[in-house]
Amino acid sequence: MRSSGAATLAQFVRVAAILLTHLALRRLIPPADWGLRDWTEALFLLLATVRDLGLPSHVVRLRPIPLGNLLRVQLGWGGALGLAILAGAPFLAATFRTPRPDVALVLQAMVVYLLLEGLASVPLTHFEAGLRIGRSVVPELARTLSYCTGALALALAGWGVWSFVLAMIGSQALYAALLWWRARPTMVLRYERGGTLTMLASSIPLGSIWLLAFAVTYADALILGSRFPDAVVGGYMFAYVWAFFASRVLQQPIGRALYPALVQFGDQPAQQFLAYRLATKVLLAIEVPAALFLFLNADLVVQILGGVRYADQADLLRLLAFAPLVDPLGRFGGELLVARNRDRDRILSLVLHLTALVAGGLYLAHRFGPVGMAWANFLALGAPVLIWSLARIDRPGLGRLVLDLVEVYGAPLPLFALAWWASGDEAWLRFALSALAALASLAWFWWRFGGRFLAFFRGPAGPEAPGAPTR
Question: Angle, to 10 degrees, between the axis of helix 269-296 and the axis of helix 245-264?
């Protein structure tokens, strides 16, 4: 719980600071440069999974943790990948539809960020494996402050897309240095001679999972970047980022603490599935009111967050607002399957999901433009495989979770319907009333499920223990 709290605090501060910074940058940097930035970010997030090969998550499952092997992979394989990107940057740049002379240069500069991020993963894995994520909070806050101040200063000086690139590199260098400094007193770089290849062979399924998961998350920017001008990509990704805002803020920090906890619960399957259920309900209890809030207030939200440049993205935001709710069981289902070494099931579900997203996105975007790409996010073809696998693990627990999620999805609807009806055509009144509806929904969910959440952290009592709450 402390690790989840620390990770969530760091993520909240980071997102809040970057939110305020990007509010200013949206007005200083044109959508075209935002489009290149979003496309580059998606590409390098995928390349980061290729760099890691699943090893940071795999070594968490080993005791003692061979951090020395992880460091050598990041230096050796990460360096080789970086050189390949430097050489192949002109070819990668050709996949971006808008013929800009700076695309290849941006890609080459981001190689430095890729290498620094790999070095930072070693001490970060050390903290996460020991559920001591709180030790990474100060470096995270320093990185956020450095990025925000650097990006704003560069944007004011007219550096355009380079405001993002240089600020990301500088802040990542600071982050890596601070993580290593804080980890050195307790981190042992244990090296298993001759064991690296064996670890990599074992981590390939896990690396495939993370690669597929990131591809599902960031396919929109890559697909649109290959077919539409940079300004169109920037406008779409503005709506996409805010539609998935609650997910981005909470899923990553909760998952950072949940995954090693699920691994440690390996000999307690009831507690393991209960941890998955609680994490899923916590996230969806926030995502559902957030989606309804965005749907009712899309015009005003776009006006506040983007200004007049993004006024025509309101309808797209309304549609995308519900995309995060399509696959609720998959929010942390992947972490549970991986913790139980059911890698094949997770890979199959992600392959189906990605296939539907890419094929559907290419076809629908060709027929209907960017809104077609938005509709492709509702094609959760991999969900049945995930449900089947979860049922094999704990069918009664899955049934209880599904019943809870029916309530999570349905309970806020009357409150938001009342806010819509009472506000009429008054946009600011609707904004205020729907915010109250969101708060009321959160209060209801805490009353309904908070007891089970607290009981889980207070002691080892399982869901069937005498006197333990059943919800």
Answer: 180
